[in-house]
Structure prediction request, 441 residues.
Amino acid sequence: MTICTKGGFFFRRRETRNGPLVTNFLFWNVNGKPLESRVASIVRTHDIDVVALAECDPTSGAWLDAISDVQQCPYYQGTTLLDSIAVYTRFRQRTMEEDPRTRVSAHQLFLPGGKDVVLVVAHLPSKLFWQADSQSQLCTEFAAQVRRLETRVGHSRTVLVGDLNMNPFEAGVVSSHGLHATMARSVAERETRTVLGKEYAFFYNPMWGHFGDALDGPPGTYYDSRAEAVTYFWNLFDQVLVRPALLGAFDTGSVRILDSDGTESLLSRTGLPEKSQASDHLPIVFRLDM
Amino acid sequence: MAEAARDLWPPDIDVKSVVPPVVILREQASLLAERTRSLVRGEVESEEKLAESVEQYLTDALKPENRIEYKHTLVLVTPALESYRYVLLSVRHDFQPYPCRAVFHPDPTWDIEGESSLPNEQEFVGWLKHMLARPETKRVIQALLYQAQES
Prediction:
């Protein structure tokens, strides 16, 4: 086991832009592939500040080198003992907590604008191994973990991103006992909802808007055409959820499912994720202005 | 002269008769700090777990004793690494401390049934001793100690 703290805990303030500072995020499940150059290409194309990867080897320095080289500035990696999640940032971060069971890695990001944000990166168990009810049950524990993290830092400026291995409409994501993520910003703005006498904080889930063909871009992040009666084909397992405290800084339109790394397509000729040259998941990018 | 009160309670009811999992976990958490000169210490987080769904809540409402579930989590904390926390294991039980169900978080088993059901204190202590001696536990603590001393 290797522990990673590359880059130390210093940070470099970004020297551009007036007004609210823009922070660009990338999440990608790279499917255990050495896609450093493709990640670097996305980082360069979208000027990414925060890179969160799943199914990668965080002990490999190649990710950090590729990202730092392409942007010609240092990125920093927090402490990690997990074997499949890595977070690289252009500014100071600290790893708050890691849980190998849920595959959750929580980080406190000290944004150049002065405020800190909690970034929770998750790669929840696959449907290959866990039934929907079990996934939902785990989400109850996961949600409690997020609440404890927020209590510890004293605010709920939280971004949750990852491969949840559930669609946005599934119980574990929607339920008040689970992640409690709603499709509508106007609902999330209520901040909390009371169910059977107990108050639950909302997440806003912008991924609902990315189902199907309504927007430019792929109809989902993960394609599965298994031969069973109910099949969605395209799924939105890769999601970003935002607490109401960050809604003012979060532009729903900034969320994009990428079909290209900026140079080469991430899709096959049939329009499906190109598994051999890239990943079976498509990356998502989004932005905070604060 | 007043007669001594008759004690009709059975002999096995007293505070020492059963040591609940949370007390055992706290003991081990404290001992880890001693063993590592506080470079890595244990913390026990406890919570009362809610029903898993509205339907479950309504079902449990008919049996209030079923509604209460306690979960205790042993977390490794490294102050020198900006209080980095690693979730090592957790145990849950209902209003009685035993039987309890315990899970070792670094276990690669992707099966929720991987939880161990432990009928009594003795079984729990045996399970805990085994998990604390697992190579994964030792590797995590060694890695944290190394990094804490480096920082």
Notes: DSSP finds five helices and 17 strands in chain A.
